[in-house]
Structure formats: structure tokens, C-alpha cells
Specification:
mainly alpha; Arc Repressor Mutant, subunit A; two-stranded parallel sheet; 4 strands
């Protein structure tokens, strides 16, 4: 499996109403130093309907200013439509940060 495919498999597991950080996706994909690679992979996402790249934010809970599918306002709208709450322009990470549990359970089965 290629690096991008590994990243996409992680992102597919992020549940609706949750977000993950670039670093978190990198770690779960196999290398904690791939944060920028995660960004590159999501920018060329081949299937946004199956790979919910809008659920990935930076470590502060901020959305991407260069969101590949219409800009930061589209990403904010997509997240809010899933019930994600923003405080001062950032995702409330204490409420919406995904812990990777679903992925970890899948790998152990």
C-alpha cells in the first residue's frame, strides 16, 4: 500500500462529527513525521465522497485556508453540518477530536 493509500485509509475511519489532526493521521498511517505528506495527500484526494478530508484540521483545530474543495468556508460548513462546534474560529478539540479508537479496534480484530 502506498503512503497516500495508508493516509486515505486512516481518514476514511474518522467518524462523522469528529476531526483528526494532520499529525494524528500521520502517526496512525505509520510515520509521525508525515504531517505535511498528509496535507499533500488530502489536497489531491481522488474521492472526497469516500475520503472525508474535511475532517482533518491542524493541531490547533484550525481548518485549512487552502481547502482543496472550495476554501476554508466550505470546510467549516461541512464540519458544522456534522455537528462540529467552533469556538473563536477553531474546532472545539476537547469535544470533537477523534481518538483513533475505531481504527485501533479494526486493526486488532
Amino acid at each position: 500500500m502506498s503512503t497516500f493509500e495508508r493516509i486515505y485509509e486512516v481518514v476514511k475511519q474518522i467518524p462523522q462529527g469528529k476531526v483528526a489532526t494532520y499529525g494524528q493521521v500521520a502517526l496512525l498511517a505509520g510515520n509521525p513525521r508525515w504531517s505535511r505528506v498528509v496535507g499533500y495527500a488530502l489536497h489531491v484526494n481522488p474521492d472526497p465522497s469516500e475520503i472525508p478530508c474535511h475532517r482533518v484540521v491542524n493541531r490547533f483545530g484550525e481548518v485549512s485556508k487552502a481547502f482543496a474543495f472550495g476554501g476554508e468556508n466550505v470546510q467549516i460548513h461541512l464540519l458544522e453540518s456534522e455537528g462540529v462546534i467552533f469556538i473563536d474560529g477553531r474546532v472545539n478539540l476537547s469535544k470533537h477530536l477523534w481518538d483513533g479508537t475505531r481504527l485501533l479496534q479494526t486493526e486488532s480484530e
